[in-house]
Amino acid sequence: MRDMKRLLCLLCAIALLAACFCTGCNGTASKTEATVKGEALHHEWKSFVYSDFYRGIYDEDTEETFRAYCEAVSKGETEFVCKSSDFRIVSRLKMLASEYMPIAFMYANVTGIDSDDVAHIDYGMSSEEFLTKLEEFKGKVLKILDDTCKAGYSDTENAIAIYDYFARNLTYTTYTSSYVVLMEENGICQDIASAYDYLLGQVGIDACVCNSMINREYPHTWSLIRLDGKYYHADPTFAVSNPGTIRYFGFTDEGRSSMDNYEEFPFTYGFESYEDPEGKFKSQDERFTDLIDSTNYELDLVNGQIKYVSSATGEDKVFKIEPGE
Predict the structure, then answer these.
(1) Among 11, 162, 224, 258, which residue has the fewest nearby CB atoms (within 10 Å)?
(2) What is the tens place of the pLDDT at every residue in 67-95?
């Protein structure tokens, strides 16, 4: 009988230990526990985001110098160590910041580099004043992400949710910056596309700006985004101008060219207008083509679908969000 009691005690102890491991030893669910899709999700702000596009055209020194710059700005520090003092690398920092660290683009000016490769930052204000602005910026970014990118959403659903936020909240105005787009919700195409790329980067989606000419006359900038390993065009500026349709999300090179008469001009990528001679960033997957016909759309991302009215027939339709083949 005594042995039986000891055996029962041992089994209970094993059961308690197993429960402890499953709950992280503090009574809370582990990260592997299933989450209800569409529930609120609290995001963490990333001080450094970047794109594989720039990794493909710039060297590692550019990325590491930009990382050091972003980390210094995220702490309100006035200096950082450059991986290289090459003028070309340092000159790229502000333009990279326009896409991947908007508050640095707005306020953090690199004023010089010492002989020991230490760069200096001037915020135009005290570090304390800048850190206050930084907290406001982080708060706004996280509110946008918390309001749009919910638990269980795929990368595609997150990209669509942020696109929809732009369509419903932004105003097209005059040249501002990606920082102003996020804080004041207005700007022009290059600012809007850069702000979109930044938010996508915050949730782990690779994106960079894409450029061309409309009707051989007007320059325009939008985003090239990578979903499920494939590239797609997304134009958050045209979303702002046409909030009732989601036709400007996820189109191919051919769709982008024919829709707005870009045929005679090649697309260029990034703020230095890289022409992609090897075709590494071609967009050919047609899984979003049906959305070209959309009007009066409504997102139902919990169920992985977009409801819309066909602009051609007036029929109610449903687009199922599926991974690319």
Answers:
(1) 11
(2) 999 999 999 999 999 988 788 888 899 99
Same domain? For 267 and 168 the reply is yes
The answer as to whether 144 is a domain residue is no
Name the domain count of the chain. Answer: 2
Whole-number Å distance between alpha carbons of 140 and 106: 15
Sequential DSSP letters for 139-167: HHHHHHHHHHS-TT--HHHHHHHHHHHHH
Is 143 within the bounds of a domain? no
- Among 96, 129, 162, residue at a domain's last position: 129
Residue 108 lies in a domain: yes
Same domain, 206 and 162: yes
CA angle 86, 180, 136 (to 5 degrees): 95
Domain identity same for 188 and 278? yes
- As separate numbers, helices (DSSP H) first and strands (DSSP E) second, the chain gives 11, 13
245 in Cβ contact with 311 (< 8 Å): yes
- Domain of residue 153 covers 149-293
256 contacts 207 by C-beta, under 8 angstroms: no
> Do 177 and 98 form a contact (C-beta atoms < 8 A)?
yes
Query: Same domain for 159 and 270?
Result: yes
What is the pLDDT confidence band of residue 325, given thresholds at 50, 70 and 90? low
> pLDDT, tens digit, for every residue of 191-212?
999 999 999 999 999 999 999 8
Q: Which alpha helices (DSSP H) does the chain contain, by range?
A: 2-22, 52-57, 60-74, 87-100, 102-107, 127-148, 155-169, 178-184, 189-202, 236-241, 253-259
- Same domain? For 153 and 289 the reply is yes
Sheet of 294-300, strand order = 294-300, 305-310, 316-320
For residue 296 the two structure tokens come to: 């009066």
